Amino acid sequence: MAAFDLVAPATPDEAIAVLHAGGSGEVLVLAGGTDLLFDLEGGRATPRRVLSLRRLPWATLDWNGTSLVIGSTLPLRALENDADVRARFPGLYAAVRAVGSVALRHRATLGGNLGRSAPSSDLVPILLALDAEVDLVGPHGERTLSVDRFVVGSRQTALGPGELIRSVCIPEPRPSAYLWQRVRPFHDISHMAVAVAYSRARTRWRVAVSGFPPRPLLVPEAEEALDGPTPSDHALGLAAEAVARHAPIVADQRASEEYRRQLVRPLLVRAIRAALTPPGAP
Amino acid sequence: MTPGPLRLTVNENATELNDVPSGERLLDTLRWRVGLKGTKDGCRTGGCGACTVLIDGKSSLSCLTLTHDVDGASVTTIEGVGADPVGAKVRAAFEAAGALQCGYCTPGFVMALTGLLKERGRAIPLAELLEDLGGNLCRCTGYVTIVRAATMAHAEAP
Q1: Which of A12, A34, A232, B120 maximizes the CB count within 10 A of its CB?
Q2: For every one of its 158 residues, what pLDDT tens digit does chain B have, with 9 covering 90 and above?
Q3: Which helix (H) or strand (E) holds B154?
Q4: ipTM (interface predicted TM)
């Protein structure tokens, strides 16, 4: 691993200044490090400086009315262990538990997962389905982007020079679910996953798929087929057809396109049914 | 560039370390600078759990942790876990169940299980506890005796 300068400022302003002072690729941001360290060890990244966020006051979890505001450096395990999160955002709870192992989740963060933006992210799809927003801070102030606008492509985000993710806001609790298919059930990468959530406020289902490049995506054609809060079997069938037909699924080293298009149908049907099953029911 | 000295409390011993490169992982610091070889170097990619230690009481992968990024933390390794009442019970359960063959994965399992039982004690359902050991791989026991040890430790947890 090439030598770099590791800095851990205590305030957001200092962190932004460090990040902004370095040129592109010169400064890398370290949150939990569970993904970044692969690139550092493998020599895929050779930064001059690494900016650790560990001293920033962003390891927070707050309710703002019905909205949940998750600080970007909160370890995923803390999110998972919160009883309200588990009860009110079952899809988010399931997605968090799909990330790595407990030991990994003690260090990995939501901000890190978004900022690193892997195509196989288990968190981006449920954040899409929950219409989550990302709060950014940078040299030119603050701005808020939907997760759909924030995640641009494989390992690409809308973060501008000197910008950091401060928090993620989920506007409202929703019936939701996250289901995946993998080789091993635990501590593996999903090669196909579906996140669903029903917004009572917007009277609309959200359907996101992931596991293939370039990035997790919403599938509006499947959302439109779902005819209300408790879709009929017929509507579920139409939605399954729509997701298999319209999702821009491609092959990669983990699975073929054909396999994924087969797989996405039952995953969607099961995800909707899981979202409609009250927590604790068998 | 090598940053300044850093301080860790390793198994309750205050430890000051100099000349640790910024990119060094906690796994390598523990094994090669502190001389505690009980923490095992498995895959170095967070895939096997053999390097699991407790950082401020929470199970963590020492292969995916920069030592300088945990400056000031308290680290517990397999060598010190017996001083923790929960850790002592977990270790005893592994011995009683004969939950090892080659032993390479054992420190990681003991640390992961200790972390889980310190976190929630007996309140964690057994099925979830076993799921939560899914980040640790064993290539020789077939897991039967490890599950037995985890079940015993769970029953005796506070």
Answers
A1: A34
A2: 567 899 999 999 999 999 999 999 999 999 999 999 999 999 999 999 999 999 999 999 999 999 999 999 999 999 999 999 999 999 999 999 999 999 999 999 999 999 999 999 999 999 999 999 999 999 998 899 999 999 999 999 98
A3: helix B144-155
A4: 0.96
- Which CATH number fits the domain that encloses residue B110? 1.10.150.120
Query: Residue B1 domain-assigned?
Result: no
| Contact by Cβ (8 Å): B93, B149 | yes
Q: Which amino acid is at A211?
A: G
CATH top-level class of A61-170: alpha beta
CA distance A237 to chain B (A): 32
Class of domain A5-52: alpha beta
The interface residues of chain A toward chain B in range 116-155, judged by CB-CB distance below 8 A, are: none
What is the extent of the structural domain holding B69? 6-76
Tokens of B41: 């170097």
Listed residue (A188, A110, A117) closest to A155, CA to CA: A117
> Which of the 8 DSSP states describes residue A108?
-
My answer on whether B71 and B90 are in the same domain is no
Omega cis (within 30) before A214: yes
Beta partners for B17?
Answer: B6
Domain limits of chain A?
Answer: 5-52, 61-170, 177-275
Which of A45, A23, A196, A217 has the alpha carbon at shortest distance from A117? Answer: A217
pTM for this prediction: 0.96
Size of interface A-B (CB pairs under 8 A): 93
| B61/A107 CB distance under 8 A | yes
Inter-chain touch A103–B135, beta carbons under 8 Å: yes
